[in-house]
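Title: Comparing notes on inverse folding

I've been comparing how different people in this forum approach sequence design from structure. To keep things fair, I'm posting one structure and asking everyone to reply with a full sequence. Here's the target:
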């Protein structure tokens, strides 16, 4: 609720700033036309243009109509004879006021309709994206569930006929697929956590020391993949970033896990973090098989398929994990990108603003 009120206040202040700055600039330009170029007949047209601009760049009807009223009063007072006196008897002044008000109403109406159409299109795109995500998730869940069910049935029905090695192998398969399912569910819950019913993104950011996040990532990664060497390069100085630490950890771990699972032939994976102006930039790179160029464009849309790409396709959840990464980074106000070349590795890069709005509970 507090963030909603803050957003509304910011919109109001922005609209007022646009209206006042436009009127001030128009007033100054009108004086220039009259005093320097001696073409006072264009003053009314100038203020009509200002009404149009304000109506386009503000929400609703109020600011455009206010601009029309104030603009008409300024023209009447400062640029119409007798100067520096209000005179509402002249028909041209009344006509100018009517034209300004009508233009404001029509422009605001068109702007509102355009925004409604954009919102409808965005909601339709969101529904398509969710449908694609649901299809991808349904497909990805089928394989591990089948493995878990098959392995458990094999142990239940043939327990006495299996040796210890076979039992351990079946238990290992169940454990690995269960762990994969847990992380899949965590990814999906993260999306529902930060996407509200209207499809907008909403998180709570708190100041977090970068080193603490990286230490937590290293511990979790080493626990899951003790045999994989992870190179770390982060700034020596203390860097504090407004973020949801749990979600950012999930982004880094998702990308690292994709490198382990899908970057066939990988010999190294590196996490580099550096400060560039007001941004903290995260780069996660590997020297694996790379990703085909035509697959890069939709890799963050939750429907990427790594089959037949030269990479390990034993798991197909890379697209889901990267869809989650994109959603989380967008919710933080940052951007995520991917660069890759076949047989030369892949680099995932995203940034977070070091200075930003922070909400304290």
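Reply #1:
Here's my take.
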């Amino acid at each position: 609720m507090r963030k909603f009120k803050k957003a509304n206040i910011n919109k109001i202040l922005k609209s007022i700033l646009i209206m006042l700055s436009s009127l001030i600039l128009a007033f100054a330009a009108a004086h220039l036309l009259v005093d320097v170029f001696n073409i006072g007949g264009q003053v009314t047209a100038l203020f009509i243009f200002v009404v149009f601009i304000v109506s386009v760049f503000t929400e609703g009807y109020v600011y455009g109509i206010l601009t029309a009223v104030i603009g008409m009063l300024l023209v009447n007072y400062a640029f119409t004879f007798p100067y520096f006196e209000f005179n509402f008897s002249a028909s041209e002044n009344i006509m100018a006021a009517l034209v300004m008000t009508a233009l404001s109403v029509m422009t605001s109406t068109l702007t509102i309709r355009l925004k409604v159409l954009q919102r409808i299109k965005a909601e339709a795109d969101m529904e398509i994206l969710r449908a694609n995500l649901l299809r991808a998730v349904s497909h990805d869940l089928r394989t591990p569930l089948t493995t878990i069910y098959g392995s458990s049935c094999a142990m239940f029905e043939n327990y006495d006929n299996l040796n210890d090695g076979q039992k351990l192998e079946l238990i290992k398969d169940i454990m690995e697929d269960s762990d994969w399912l847990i992380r899949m569910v965590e990814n999906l819950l993260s999306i529902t956590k930060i996407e509200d019913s209207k499809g907008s993104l909403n998180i709570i950011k708190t100041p977090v020391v970068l080193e603490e996040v990286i230490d937590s990532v290293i511990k979790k990664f080493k626990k899951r993949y003790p045999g994989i060497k992870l190179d770390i390069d982060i700034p020596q100085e203390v860097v504090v970033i407004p973020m949801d630490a749990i979600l950012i950890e999930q982004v880094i771990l998702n990308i690292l896990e994709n490198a382990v699972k899908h970057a066939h032939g990988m010999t190294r994976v590196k996490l580099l973090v550096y400060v560039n102006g007001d941004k903290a930039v995260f780069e996660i790179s590997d020297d694996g098989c790379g990703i085909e160029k035509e697959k890069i464009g939709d890799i963050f849309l939750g429907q990427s398929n790594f089959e037949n790409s030269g990479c390990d396709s034993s798991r197909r959840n890379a697209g889901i994990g990267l869809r989650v990464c994109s959603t989380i980074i967008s919710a933080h106000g940052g951007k995520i990108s991917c660069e890759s070349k076949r047989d030369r590795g892949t680099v995932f890069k995203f940034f977070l603003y070091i200075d930003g709005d922070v909400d304290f509970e």
